[in-house]
Each structure stands twice: as structure tokens, then as C-alpha cells.
Model the fold of this input.
Amino acid sequence: MNDLLEQFLVETRELVQSGTEDLLSLEAAPGDAEALNRVFRAFHTLKGGVGLFDYPAWFALLHAAEDGLSAARAGTLAVNAVLVDLSLEALDATARWTDAVEATERLPETATAEAATLADRYRSLLDRAPEAGVTAASALPDWAARLVGSTDAGTPTTALRYRPRSDCFFSGDDPLGFVRKVPGLLAVSVEPAGPRPAGEEFDAYACNLDIAILTNSGRPELDAVFRLVADQVTVVDVPDGGRQPAPTGVDRGDAALAETEPVVAAILSEQVRVLAATGDATIAAGCLEACARSVANAMAFAGRTEEAERCRLDSVGGRQGLRATIEAVLAGRPGEMPAAVAEAAAEGSEQAGGDAVRTLRVDAARVDALVALVGELVVARNALSHVATRAEAGEDAATLARAIRDADANMGRLSMALHRNAVSLRLMPLSQVFRRFTRPVRDAVRGLGKEVVLEMEGEGTEADREIVENLFEPLLHVVRNAVDHGLEGVEDRLRLGKPAVGRIRIAAGPDGDGIVVSVSDDGRGIDPAFIRRRSAERGLRSPHALADMDDAAVVDLIFAPGFSTADSVGALSGRGVGMDAVRVAAGRMGGRVSVESRVGAGTTVSLHLPRTIALSRILVVGVGEESYGIAMDAVLEVVRVPRSGIRAVDGGDAMVRRGRTVPIMRLAELLNRPDPSCTQAKALLLVIRSGGETVALDVDRIQDRLDAVVRPPAGLVGTVPGVGGTTVRGDGGVLLVLDPTALIADAASMGMGRFGEGR
Amino acid sequence: MTVVLRTDDGTIRLEGTCPVEDAETLAALILEDPGRPVDWVGCTRMHTAVYQVLLSLRPVVLGACGDPFVDLWLDRPGPG
Done:
């Protein structure tokens, strides 16, 4: 995939996300002008992004949405549920098309029709809106009249007054920069907006200007130029010798073409600005390519294919060449070929062909730390070469050995630190996941007759990208369950004396080395009696075993596979739909999940996850001819017990350890390996904690301990049950690292060793 | 930095592209000695903020502005 497209996809998703949030906050407070501005800007940027590629339907939709929001900003269109819903739908479509483009680089076939429908809905909104923003042409305001009177050049059609906000310089505006872009300029007046307060210090960065211009181009052209500062601009039509003012968008028939032109013009002028601004050689190539492409697409969109082709060709001639061409087109001299093309040809051509770099957004400080460490590593290496020189000079072995050990220790320390820092490059805040919940909760609550406030806490907590990205789905399961089954309806809540509005709280925080993410609700809680009944019905545990489990252990059964199925959702008083999937997902990320609940008061589900894909300590165990790794933190203890102390209990083996019955499983059996019977007089057992239970694994020998980066299973290995990942051993061989929880759960589901019933 | 104070003749000279940051430097130089003339012949592109400084503080401006847009469309600031 093209790098530009890749970057576009990333940004589009971010914009859809932020746009959705802002729309939701706009829905909550329709008067929030800032939120409206943010939504507008999100759509504006989205449109700009889409314009870089060849997706006319998508572009048209975003353009229509932008028009609608622009009208809302100008106050001519009411901000209401209709506008918000429509805009959310537009963002949904954008999100779906982003996925489609990522998969196939094309829009789905339905996109054109869908875009047209949505765009039409925006237009019908606009058509109904009163044209409050249009000032009657007959009443020419003073400032415009003055300007008309001061000039006799040309035949002005439109006058514009632009009073930049006083802080506009800080937001990067160059007010006269907009004026420079106005086509058909006839007169400009720039005056101080007000007298400078006497005695006060002159502030060069406070804009205090009143700009008025007169042009012979129409309102749409001006709108295009001043689109970003539309709130600071007043436009009036100037009546002129019987010529009618430019249509203001009511007549859609023949205005359609004229309407695209200002957009095209705006896109072109934007490219000129970008081309002029880019001085940085490292991004110049990508920038040039992007500009050429947007211009070509914009021109093709406007039906000017010949010029589109020329722009494409001129981009080979480097920045200056392209810029000259665009300016020629803008000035209405499309045939004129820039003389600069030939001489500028050398400038960017090589860069344009080169590969751009895949991007990752990283805090600069983290990169600095990494660079510093690499510097230290280089120094450490020099120490080693010094030792080599000493060895060549014939220094004695003992001194050398010490020097080598020192160097090794030093480099070991540095490589650990380097690993830690490199891993931290991948850290990202959980807010990225948390923010995605507002929408599903809103959607889930609608139609359920419930009211919910979603609270979030600790979204600044950071974790590895892999974990953050994989967190959404399991967390969504939990949140949906809380909304569906945890919270009561409004009436029930009132009857119980609870506030009508339910509360769901997603919180994150550090938890030792890792993080904990929890979802709490103040709903009805989980009734252990119900879980007992259901578990017995489903044969998850024998009634005997259930009777011996305490309430907490019983509630934990909601995570057991087979506890509930989709068809029984309605019958559930608590929750449980797909909670086993949550446990599996947490396990896959190297974490675990737990639940706490009080009947009538609510439920908290917590996911305990590692912060990074850290170096793990691995225990290498041998079974028969083979070796496997087991994460050391899963192992509670390693014991040797005489075989005589192992008893057959209820179809499996078990031993008594610290007053508890611990079921024993043979690792060879779990892995379906040939089991060369138990030859040793003493069994070697790894006592591990797995899914809330203690189990002992019978292995043949313990071979090694190592620190390793465990890679998640992929490809063929990914389909083997019970394998948590792979790592490379010191001798270069690949070691399968087992996930005891999955291994045992898998065995349990196949009916092997009914260990869960031990006491 | 494209605002230069010439020590030989005491003029303030604007050169090349004068971005928004130049506004403050320019304002400081003019306020320091309001009699200093400003030479804007070498300025090829002027930011609004820079023009605003000239418009508000009204120093004597020398020559024609090198920024064609300013030269063509904007009033020439000056004392009076």
C-alpha cells in the first residue's frame, strides 16, 4: 500500500473518532460553538484528506457535510438531533469506507448511492434553512459603499469585510494571506479596527485590523477562500448596472458546476501554499506527490482532465514547476506553460520516486533517550575492542576474563535498558480506547429504556500499542454486558431507591508492573445462587463441587466456557454473555480477568494486563524428548513428591498439598505426546495457578531458565491449542512457550481430568 | 530573521520573507527610536502582522515594497 494512503487511513480514523466525540458533546450541548467548530474542522480535514485520492463519492459526501456544518456555524442551520445524527451517519460511512479502502484500496460498490443519499439529506436540511446569512443587496453597508466609491476599476460584484480575531496570529492565520488568494481583486482597504488605547504598550501579536475588499468574483469563490475564517467575514453583493448578484445556492440546476469551481480553486490555492511552505527536504518528496495528486484529482473532478494530466506531468519538474502550473491554472491561463519547469526539473524528481518512511507517532523525549543509550552502547563496544587489543598483546587470561566479564555486564545492562526504551516507544495512552466507548454506550442505551452516564478515569495510563489495540473488543463485551444486564431499567431503579441514571465507570491505573482496567456498574449485581443453579444445569461443575465453592469462586464461573450461550441472554438476571471470550482475550494478552459483585449494588470486572511485552522469565521443562517453555510467573512452586503420595481421585490424579487437594495433570498427556510412563520414583511437579484454580503439572525434568521476548504465536503455531508464543533459545532453536491456562482449559473442555472438583 | 537594523545609516531594513515573528522585532526597533525609517524594498513577502506594525506605528517608509501584493493593493503607511 502507498505510504500516503496508509497515513491517510490513520488520520482518517483519528478524525472520525474525534469528530464523533465532538458531535456527541454537541448533542449534549447544542450551543457549544467550540464543539461545533471542532466538528467542522474534522470534516474539513477529512475532506482535504479524501481529496488527495480518487474517491469522488466520498469527497462529495464530506463536502455536503461540510456545507451543512458551515451553515450551522453561521447560524443559518439549527444544531439539532437531525444534524447530529446525519453527521454521525456520515462519519460511520467514512469509517466503513476507510476499512474498505484499507482492504481493497477501493470504495464499496454501494458507496456512491449511499454518499448521494446522505449528501441529499444535508442539502434538504440546507434548503429548508432560512437564508438568514444573505444580506439584501440593495442595502449596501457604509464600509462597502466607501470602498466602491474609492475605486473606479472594473465592475465589482461582491464586497467582503473581514475583521480578524485579535488572537488570529496565534492560530497561524495570515489575514492578508487570504486576501492574496482572492480572485478578481479590485480594491483593498486595511485599517486599524480601533484606536490604540493610549498609554498601553503596543502588542505586535494582537491583530487589530479591519479589512475590506472589492472583487468581481462571486460569493462562492470568496466563501472558498475565507472558509476557515467564515465567522469573521461578512459578504455582500454589490448591485452593478443591472447585473444580478451571483446565485447563493438556492438554484441547484446550473449552479452545480459553478459550485465545484471554488472548491477546486480552494484546493489548488492550498497546494500552492503547501508547495511554497515546504522547505524541509525530508518531506518534500511526499509533499510534492501529495500536492500533484490532489491537484490532478481536483481538476479531474471539475472535468478538466487535460489540465489534470498536465499537473501530473509537471510534478516531475519539481516543486517550482508544479507551483507555476497551478498558479497559471488559478489565474485562468491554463495554456501557459511555466518557464521554470525545465530549470527546476532536477530539484525534486529523485526524491519523488524514493520510498517515503512509515510513520509512528512518538514522543520526541523517548527518541532522545534511545539515542543516548545507543551512544552508550557504542562506547561499551569500544571497550570491548580495547580488550581484544589487550588479548592480542598477550595479556594473561585471568585479567582478560575479568575485563570481558565487565564489558559483558555493561553491555547487558545497556541492552536491557535499550529494550525497555524501545518497548516504551510503543506505549500509547488508553484514552484512545476509552474514547471509543461513548458511542456504543449511547447506541446500546437507546431503545433499552435506560439512562446511563459513562465515567472514565485514568485514561492517561499507558500500555503497549498491541495491548491498547486489542483491549477494545473484550472491554466492549464487558461494557455491553453492564448496559444490557447489569443496569436495571429506570423504573426498577427508582423503585429500588437508586438514582434513575445508571452509572458505568471505566477506570484504568497501574497495577504493579502492569495495568488494571476495570468496568464497574451500579446495577443489580450478580446473584451467586443463580450462578450455582445455572452452572449445575449446564454441567460446568458437579453440584457437589459447587456446594463447596465460596460465592466469589462461584461468581468467577461467569468466565467459564459454556457458562452461557447467546440464546439465553434474556433469561439472565446478571451477565455472562461471552464472558469466557473476555477471559480468553485477556489471557492472550498475558493478563487475567476478575470479577467482584454485590447483589443489588453492582459489579466490577477488572482486566489485569501487562504494560508492555516485556522480557519474560521462562522455565524450560522437558517432556520425553522435547522441551517446552512455561512463563515463570505462572509457576507458584516446583515440588518433588514421591509417586506413592499421588492418589487417583475421581478419575484423575491428585495430591494433598498444604491441606488442599491439588489435581495433577501430566504435561505429556495434555500435549498428546507419547507418555513414557512414570519411571522416576519421585514426580516433578510445577504447581501453577490457572484461572482461579491451583493445578500441578507433572513434567519429566527442568532444563533451564531464561529471559526472553515471547512472540505471540503466528501462522501454523497459532492454531495449536495451549501455545502462548515462541521464543528463540541461546542455541538458535525455537522454543514453544506454553500457556498453562489455555492448555488446562482446553483439556477440561475435552473432559480430561476433572480437576476442578478437587478439594 | 529578516528585520535588520543598519548601523551605518540607522534604517531598519526588511528583507526576504517577513513572517509573523518579525512583527515584534520590527515594533521594538521602531519604538526604540520612532525616527528610524523603514526600508521595505527587499521584502518579498510580508505577513499581516508586520504590515500592521507599520500601519499602527507609522514610521517613515522608504521605497516601493518588494512584496507585489502590498505594493499593488495596500496603502503606504507613513507619518501624518
About this structure: Chain A has a mean pLDDT of 77.
